[in-house]
Amino acid sequence: METGFRKFTAAIDQGTTSTRFFIFDERGEPVAKHQEEFDQIYPHAGWVEHDPSVLIKSVENCIEVATGKFVASGYNTQDICALGITNQRETSLVWDIRSGEVLYNAVVWADSRTAHIVRQLKLEGAANRILSKTGLPLSTYPSAVKVKWILEHSKAARDVYEAGYLAFGTVDTWLLYNLAEGHSGERLHVTDVTNASRTLFFDINTLEYDPFLTEFFGLEKLLLPKVASSSNSRAYGVLSRGPLKGLRITGCLGDQSAALVGQKAFEQGMAKNTYGTGCFMLYNTGNQPVLSRNGLLTTIAFQFENRPPVYALEGSIAVAGSAVKFLRDNLGIIREANEIGELAMSVQDSGGVVFVTAFAGLFAPYWVDDAQGTIFGITNYTKKEHICRATIEATCFQTKAIMDAMEKGWYSGITIKNLAVDGGMSNSDECMQLQADIIGIDVDRPAMRETTALGAAIAAGFGVKLWLSFDDLRGVNSRNHRKFSAQTTPTQRTRRFRQWERAVAMSKGWLTSEDIDKEYDD
Ligand SMILES: Nc1ncnc2c1ncn2[C@@H]1O[C@H](COP(=O)(O)OP(=O)(O)O)[C@@H](O)[C@H]1O
Ligand SMILES: O=P(O)(O)OC[C@H](O)CO
């Protein structure tokens, strides 16, 4: 049994596929955790929703079970000094601020039902202005278009909007609204700068909502959450129920930002790549937002209290672990996600198969709405092992395309010397070896790969002054990194990547404008 006074930090990690709760010690080692996968709702092709009440329930369960384990190990909950929240970004919810009644399922970031709205909005010629304010392209990915769709299709939401009571939130805001309260017992409607920077309502230069943007989307009456720094001693209140009731919440940030913090990539020039449901590379550009001309996003990486924001260039891949899940749940090629690596490596190569996993168009650096998942190069020789390999390679090739886009940009003189990785798919040695083989630089994986949750816990720890400077984190999550080095020649890499690029080019234009404009009944 552990004795003695220790300071623990806790983190809720509400991801796309699962929810987790962690309690970390001061070296960033998890001492208790619980994780639950929850149902994805796919009402039509390209649509993805989450049940808002399931999100809350899964967080409550995870807190309850992990806290039970913590106490059973002899620890005292009084020694947990702060809680951080991190979440899938862009996923959008609306509710009646008077009653808390939710008015539609959460429309998930990867959902592409808004392709027709985006096509129309692009015709208005404001895309460049929007990009320079928000760092985001007009696409199906950010929140604004999802909310616009909800208002066009849900009478209940529209009525509450017209009456001026429709609250909007990303998942962090939704959780804080339901599971927390302010220091005077008030209900919270709050978010952090990183989540706000994914909505298309927020100007990342001024750190304020921009009326031009809400007007552009026709959403002037929407109630937007207050925006606070990612590490903040007061804005996020305390937990209002459960075994950790009263625990201060002093960290809140989007999951990709949290992973950057968890990897301790605090300085300009540091980058990380997180292989979760999707895969997201963030490159720290310091205190200046840098706009990309090569299909990357500009985002707020994090902002600690009383400090200026830190920005990042981001390469977002919509489908990574979700393609592994697709092989498991839809095709039945594997029974468990962790089988894919071994199967992929049991063949010498993909046997000429290239899988463009554009389940809902392609994100960075391509931004193609009219692509759909396409498998090229199938022959009589093709076995499921080749498909497994091509599935992993799809994420690895997109990662290479993003690295190229970052390095090609004249704006920052970026060279990435090694790639810090984490997230579900990074658990597979085989996936990480294939990644190194495709990019030709070292892949660096920490032993403790729950960096997203750790990043939220670090933000929370700063909010209660557990740590005062980034130097204080020297001992946190620094043990046992593993390096994967390329076992390919430059010629092999170039040849394989060209084949991938050819496949991407051929997958474009599969959906016609008629397909895109097709509306389903709600
Ligand atoms: N050993 C593995 N090999 C390949 N993919 C994996 C492995 N373990 C998990 N995954 C994939 O990683 C994803 C989950 O990663 P995670 O970081 O938990 O995602 P999220 O935060 O989006 O919920 C799943 O889609 C799963 O298919
Ligand atoms: O659930 P993840 O980890 O793939 O992350 C989702 C992203 O935040 C979406 O932008």
Automatic annotation (TrEMBL):
Keywords: ATP-binding, Glycerol metabolism, Kinase, Nucleotide-binding, Transferase. Pathway: Polyol metabolism; glycerol degradation via glycerol kinase pathway; sn-glycerol 3-phosphate from glycerol: step 1/1. The keyword GTP-binding does not apply. The keyword ATP-binding applies. One of its GO terms (biological process) is triglyceride metabolic process. InterPro entries: ATPase_NBD (IPR043129), Carb_kinase_FGGY (IPR000577), Carb_kinase_FGGY_CS (IPR018483), FGGY_C (IPR018485), FGGY_N (IPR018484), GK1-3_metazoan-type (IPR042018), Glycerol_kin (IPR005999). GO terms for cellular component: mitochondrion. Pfam families: FGGY_C, FGGY_N. Its EC number is 2.7.1.30. Residues 11-262 form the Carbohydrate kinase FGGY N-terminal domain. One of its GO terms (molecular function) is glycerol kinase activity. This is glycerol kinase. It comes from Arthrobotrys oligospora (strain ATCC 24927 / CBS 115.81 / DSM 1491).
